[in-house]
Q: What sequence folds into this?
């Protein structure tokens, strides 16, 4: 344990460089593991197991992550501490214990509900519950990693994410390869995830020396209150993003869920690229808006919109031209028994890429609304689109299958982006007149 702690805490004199490198490595491994696991579960355990993994890990599990996480990292890492009107690590940790416990209870209720309604077999419910547990522990680990970042040790955040991912994903794949059983691999991964938090988070936080573990009466309640609207927005946002996947799990078989999860992967890449384009200009947009420089704000918004639009056109065009070839390669990775399983869905693949591009533009408008301090408007848009998604997704999937799921995703991204756009336009007009 001491040797591991020394390895984690070791940092060169160039801390900024270490922070950048390890944060990049950790984020990359985390994203890569999600994609690799989706392929290998289907290859090693079959298409039905792949579908169960898709709903348990990438969909419902990620939804439970949002409950455990509570959307608090932006608050936590910018909090100046209890002595300056903020909160201590002890208070954030107590809050995270409560949200993680709530997520476990919700996951258990969901599993029992699905079994009781005859929608899941007990084995599927157990796997989904354990995969959700894996993600909930991810949310618990985030409170440590947020504190590392607040203390100026972002490299520890990256190391923790990287080492935990390698340990838990490696354990999962090893057991899956030996047993060909998802039900055997899930508890192994869950235990490895818990071990990773103990090794790479719990044992490190006590060695930093500057961490405040104190708790004040009423502080946790204040954290719930301060982050409540943000949490609800994050929760609804992910539901909208995943509504088509929930509908496929409800209306189709497990194999369909697994295959849809594979053709849905470009959305993650598009999201990363979009953030790479958007985040560097947010500071300038904020300065322009706060200084009432509407023309400067609009110029940046137009420039990034054109860039996102151009990249979207290229991505959709490339998908229409090369999509079948890409899906054939994915089938080869899955194995000969899956030949033809994905290539029928080239149109759906292209529609999902288009939806991803629209989502990227919506993300730009989302950040614009945050800069304008219109979080309530964001929440209202999420409520309306989530309600529409709950009704429309099952209908489209039941009528058109996976193609309907792709259309639903694209439609909801369009609705969400349009809602954000209307809010931005109205506030921009108000600002110019004022």
A:
């Amino acid at each position: 344990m001491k040797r591991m702690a020394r390895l984690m805490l070791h940092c060169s004199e160039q801390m900024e460089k270490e922070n950048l490198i390890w944060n990049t490595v950790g984020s990359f491994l985390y994203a890569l593991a999600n994609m690799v696991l989706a392929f290998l579960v289907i290859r090693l355990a079959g298409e039905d197991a792949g579908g169960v993994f898709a709903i348990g890990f990438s969909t419902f599990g990620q939804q439970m992550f949002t409950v455990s996480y509570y959307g608090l990292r932006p608050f936590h890492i910018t909090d100046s501490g209890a002595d300056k009107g903020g909160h201590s690590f002890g208070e954030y940790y107590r809050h995270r214990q409560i949200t993680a416990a709530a997520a476990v209870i919700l996951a258990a209720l969901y599993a029992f509900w699905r079994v009781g309604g005859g929608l899941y077999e007990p084995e599927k419910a157990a796997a989904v519950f354990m995969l959700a547990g894996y993600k909930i522990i991810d949310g618990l680990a985030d409170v440590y990693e947020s504190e590392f970042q607040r203390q100026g040790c972002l490299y520890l955040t990256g190391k923790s994410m990287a080492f935990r991912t390698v340990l838990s994903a490696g354990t999962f794949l090893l057991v899956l390869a030996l047993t060909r059983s998802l039900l055997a691999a899930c508890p192994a991964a869950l235990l490895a995830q818990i071990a990773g938090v103990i090794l790479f988070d719990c044992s490190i936080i006590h060695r930093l020396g500057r961490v405040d573990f104190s708790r004040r009466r009423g502080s946790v309640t204040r954290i719930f209150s301060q982050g409540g609207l943000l949490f609800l927005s994050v929760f609804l946002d992910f539901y909208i993003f995943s509504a088509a996947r929930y509908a496929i799990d409800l209306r189709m078989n497990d194999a369909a869920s697994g295959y849809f999860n594979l053709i849905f992967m470009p959305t993650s890449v598009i999201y990363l690229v979009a953030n790479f384009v958007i985040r560097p200009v947010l500071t300038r947009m904020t300065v322009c808006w706060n200084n009432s420089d509407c023309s400067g704000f609009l110029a940046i918004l137009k420039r990034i919109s054109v860039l996102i639009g151009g990249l979207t056109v290229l991505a959709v065009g490339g998908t229409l031209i090369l999509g079948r070839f890409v899906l054939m390669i994915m089938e080869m990775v899955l194995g000969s028994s899956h030949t033809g399983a994905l290539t029928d869905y080239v149109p759906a693949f292209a529609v999902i890429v288009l939806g991803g591009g629209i989502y990227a533009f919506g993300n730009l408008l989302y950040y614009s609304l945050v800069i304008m301090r219109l979080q309530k408007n964001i929440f209202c848009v999420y409520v309306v689109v989530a309600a529409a998604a709950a009704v429309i997704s099952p209908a489209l999937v039941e009528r058109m299958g996976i193609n309907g799921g792709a259309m639903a995703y694209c439609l909801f991204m369009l609705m969400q982006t349009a809602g954000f756009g209307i809010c931005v336009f109205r506030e921009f007009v108000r600002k110019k007149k004022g």
Notes: The chain has 14 helices and no strands. The CA atoms of residues 142 and 410 lie 30 Å apart. Residues 375-433 form the longest helix (59 residues).
